[in-house]
Amino acid sequence: MITKEKLLQTINDLPSEFSLEELLDRIILLQKIEIGLEQSEKSQVNSTEQAKGQLKKWLQ
């Protein structure tokens, strides 16, 4: 979950003029990073070998 502090920091890091699309892109990226960190803490990650196997399937 995104905290208000992190969201406000993301907004403060934007230039004084920005598009709504830019803001949404950054919020989505922030959310994906938070999800990844939570999954990592819960050991819900793939090993290198699992990732290589998935990549091979995608490239076939």
Structural features:
mainly alpha, 60 residues
Explain how this protein is built.
The mean pLDDT is 95. The protein has one domain. α1 packs across α2. The protein is mainly α. The longest helix has 22 residues, at 20-41. The protein is 73% helix and 0% strand. It has helices at 4-13, 20-41, 48-59. It is elongated and about 45 Å long. The protein starts with a helix and ends with a helix.
DSSP strand content: under 5%
Level of helix content? Answer: over 70%
Assembly type: single chain
Largest pleated sheet: none
* Total count of strands: 0
Number of domains: 1
Task: Please provide a brief summary of the model.
With 60 residues, the chain is an all-alpha fold. The chain is built from three helices and no strands.
